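name: query_chain
kind: protein
chains: 1
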Amino acid sequence: MILFISFVIILAMMSTKLSAKLGLPLLIGFILIGIIVGSDVLNLFYFDNAVLTKRIADILLIFIIFDGGFRVTRDEFKSVAGPSLTLATLGVALTSGILGLLIHFIFKFDIIYSLIISSIISSTDAAAVFMINKANPIKTRLATTLNVESAANDPMAILLTITFIQIATSQFESLFVSIVLLIWQFVGGVFIGYICFKLSKFVFKHLNADNRGNYNVLIIGCILFTYGISDLLKANGIISVFFMGYWLGNTQFPSKKSVSSFLDSISTIFNMSLFIMLGLLSFPHRFVSIWKEALIIVAIMMFIARPLAVFLSTLPFKYSLKEKGFIMWGGIKGAVPIVLATYPLAAGIDGSGFIFDSIFFAVFLSCLIQGTTLGLLSKLFRLTEKRKAVSPHIVELHSLQSSEIDMYEITVEENSKSINVPISELNLDKDVLISSIVRDGKIILPKGQTKLDAHDTLFILAQSSKIDSIIKQINGAS
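structure:
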């Protein structure tokens, strides 16, 4: 088993290079690895436990969603909060309603059965969206719109799915109760996320550990506590951890950069694990009997239901036609719909496995078609921005206490007025220190007469309150 797991991990990491060359999203590579080593191909690992999949996926998604919120800046969120949350609520409901009605009329399925299928696949999957947006230089506003929508739209999809399953099994309580629960899912999730952010900030400030690894362990505890207390109070844990991550990511706390690197690592591991596990859960031989229906469902979703829902939901907001078209195509499906597809099975509604197999195949097609073309569409519509070069070196300040001083990474832009200017003539404050410069992958020890070049990465020790003015001072247009 250990040898098998090591083989899968190495193969998954090697596939990242092949994925980049072929232009395929990493999640497709991970799903394919799961399918290949699973029951229907090489049969190296038999796995068919949908309930266990749901439990593991729930845990992995907690950290993936938290990391997504942690990376969103305050300015980015403020610029997209309105449209993103509208898409996460009204957009999901419209997608489910339109898709469900069309499934009912085309396949002559029972209307509730049709709405169960449409509700399961109505939400945009956060793990898939985060991974694809991270791999493509999509404009920040659009990428953040999709990120926030995908992180916040699970409650609506879950509520609709559970409601229609309850109606189908004659367990539905009342519309009023459902609406109250939905409101509490959102409001309670945000409120608990804020309280847990305050608590997390407090414990980070007072840990005073000599080992920075202790802070990495602490963040795991804070994330799980946030989700756990939300679940206990019947609020939405995914929303809670997303907003706790958002507020914590926009706050200074001890060992923040070390924690950020750690979160990036576990997010990658958990994304990989999640999609490999979903690949293992699939049985491609069963697709032969449902591929036509699944193909029609995914076509309706991509070209009718999602576009109409996005168009109506974004009417009050300022997006160009190209931007709206991009958001329409950005409704990528992933882990959450597959997890939700286990609900009808558990309720005894999907004895034949039609819903689960159809949803899995539809999700795979969505990842394959939308996932591989989203980056190309952003370039075609000119909705990309130049991505900053990533330095192969990291310089950070490890502080055991909260401090107004930190180490910041600034890239010298092409049109910067600081190019060919000696450091001594930059007129930086006396309490600002350029500790090192990374140029062409090598570290340079700066001196007063060292001149800056375009694309230099500067590691600057300065007060947090002054960093914005320092960036403007260095990268002002020449």
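note: The mean pLDDT is 84.
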